Amino acid sequence: MKKLIYLSLLITASFASCDHNSEADVHVNLNGTYIGTFERNGRVSNVELDLAEDRFSGTSDTDKYPAICSGIYSNNTVEITFSNHCAWTADFDWSLILSDTWTFNLSEDQLIMTKANGDKYSLTKQ
């Protein structure tokens, strides 16, 4: 009987120690070309953002508003983190560089990315 109790405790402990992925740890496939807008404080510019595997690149119709260029990214189901690999001059607001962590929502072909400071990308997958 003691062996059965020990075996039961061992099995229970092994299940309890399993690492279960939370929803936020799951990767969402965002690969594709997205076209839309970037907005900060009511000022809007047209942008294009290409996401392929773990790399990104993009452009804006307004010079350095936002500053997209290229780099790498990673994401889960609720956040996307960009690491921009381009060299930038000091003649503009570096908070406009696409980098750091953004909250995102993907609904069919619509990708909305927002940042705590109010910046927002509203994009449509092509």
Structure, explained:
It is a single chain. The chain has 126 residues and is mainly β. It has a single domain, classed as Beta Barrel (Lipocalin), CATH 2.40.128.50. It contains one helix and eight strands. The protein has one helix spanning 2-16, and strands at 32-40, 43-52, 55-60, 69-75, 79-84, 100-107, 110-114, 120-125. The protein has an eight-stranded antiparallel barrel. Strand 1 (32-40) and strand 2 form a beta hairpin. The termini are far apart.
Descriptive keywords:
eight-stranded antiparallel beta barrel, single chain, Lipocalin, 126 residues, 8 strands, mainly beta
Secondary structure blueprint with pairings:
Layout: H1 2-16, E1 32-40, E2 43-52, E3 55-60, E4 69-75, E5 79-84, E6 100-107, E7 110-114, E8 120-125
Antiparallel strand pairs: 1-2, 1-8, 2-3, 3-4, 4-5, 5-6, 6-7, 7-8
CATH architecture: Beta Barrel
Strand arrangement, major sheet: 1-2-3-4-5-6-7-8
With helices defined by DSSP (H or I, 4 residues minimum), what is the helix count? 1
Q: How many domains would you count in the coordinates?
A: 1
% residues in beta strands: over 45%
Shape: globular
Task: Give the CATH class.
Answer: Mainly Beta
